[in-house]
Design brief:
The complex is a heterodimer of chains A (125) and B (187).
Chain A: H1 3-11, H2 23-36, H3 38-41, H4 47-68, H5 71-82, H6 87-114, H7 116-120
Helix pairs in contact in A: 4-6
Chain B: H1 4-12, H2 18-38, H3 41-57, H4 68-86, H5 112-124, H6 128-139, H7 144-151, H8 155-186
Classes of the chains: A mainly alpha (125), B mainly alpha (187).
Chain lengths: 125, 187
């Protein structure tokens, strides 16, 4: 099958009726609306920042787990204890940070998954 | 007539009305591409409008590294895919995996008008993404590199897909012509 044959067959599909007369004005109406209400279309926090926040919190929430597995971390906690920080307070704080981290990571992940369609249509560079 | 580059510059500088010039210059191009994929004039017009709104919102990021039409094609392509996904029409076609054929002689016995007719029918059975891919290549005569910019497939992937689509079309044509022959024999 040669190129000309393909071209002829595909040309049969080309738009016969075309666009409605007010196409441009309809687009301009939507464009003006978009320009006046940017928050309706753009999220307040850009996606890249949200992803960074999510990854940051994920790192924070993983930190105590990694540290907890290290002997040096125990020594570090001991040091803090000697400085007057109650280990139970420290554990509570770490737990809270971990929980927060998991929540943010989950939210970011859900956001990315739910908006997968929109994700594909991100502005081309 | 103001050039596309001039209109883009004006819009990027904040002159919103200049965007209507860009819409006028490119609306048929966008509509044709979208229509090939969504196959419904009302939906196609809506998707084409959304394409231009998206283009407007991100025009400041257009650096002129590719042609404006290619950039617009890319937005239209993904807007159409999103639309098809929402309507769950993205894979609406026959299952063509079993009817690929290496043999390219399916149309050899026919005259030119019939070849075009059957090929047109066979193309109608392809998935919207595949239909668009061969349209970009054969009808719009875009290079593989330009198609890569629009669809984000790799060059090798595009070549493989084009080859596969041609094989599927051959298989389809064989099946269609066989059916035609069978019905003629019965009558």
């Amino acid at each position: 099958m040669d190129k000309d044959l393909f071209k002829a067959a595909l040309s049969k599909d080309e738009v016969a009726e075309g666009l409605t007369a007010d196409f441009t004005s309809s687009v301009m109406e939507k464009v003006e609306h978009a320009a006046e209400n940017p928050s309706q279309f753009e999220p307040l926090v850009p996606k890249r920042i949200r992803i960074l926040i999510g990854l940051g919190y994920l790192a924070i929430c993983l930190l105590p787990i990694i540290l907890g597995m290290q002997e040096s971390a125990l020594a570090w906690m001991d040091q803090l204890h000697r400085l007057g920080v109650e280990s139970s307070d420290l554990k509570q704080t770490l737990k809270f940070i971990s929980l927060l981290g998991f929540v943010f990571a989950a939210l970011t992940l859900t956001d990315m998954l739910v908006k997968r369609g929109a994700f594909l249509s991100i502005k081309p560079t | 007539m103001i050039s596309t580059e001039q209109l883009i510059k004006e819009v990027q500088e904040g002159q919103m009305q200049a965007f209507s010039g860009l819409v006028d210059q490119h609306k048929n191009l966008v509509y044709s591409l979208v229509m090939r994929m969504v196959k419904n004039s009302q939906d196609a017009e809506e998707v084409a409008q959304d394409t231009f709104v998206k283009a407007f919102k991100s025009i400041k990021q257009f650096k002129g590294e590719s042609k404006f039409s290619t950039w617009l094609y890319k937005i239209a392509y993904f807007t159409a895919i999103n639309h098809l996904r929402e309507k769950q029409l993205l894979s609406s076609s026959l299952d063509l995996t079993d009817i690929e054929s290496e043999d390219s002689s399916a149309l050899e016995q026919l005259n030119q008008a019939d070849r075009i007719k059957y090929l047109h029918q066979a193309i109608g059975y392809l998935r919207p993404i595949d239909r668009n891919l061969i349209s970009l290549y054969y009808l719009d005569e875009l290079s593989i590199k330009e198609i890569q910019e629009i669809t984000l497939f790799t060059e090798a992937n595009i070549k493989v897909k084009l080859l596969r689509i041609r094989k599927q079309l051959n298989g389809l044509l064989k099946a269609m012509l066989n059916d035609e022959l069978q019905s003629l024999i019965k009558n």
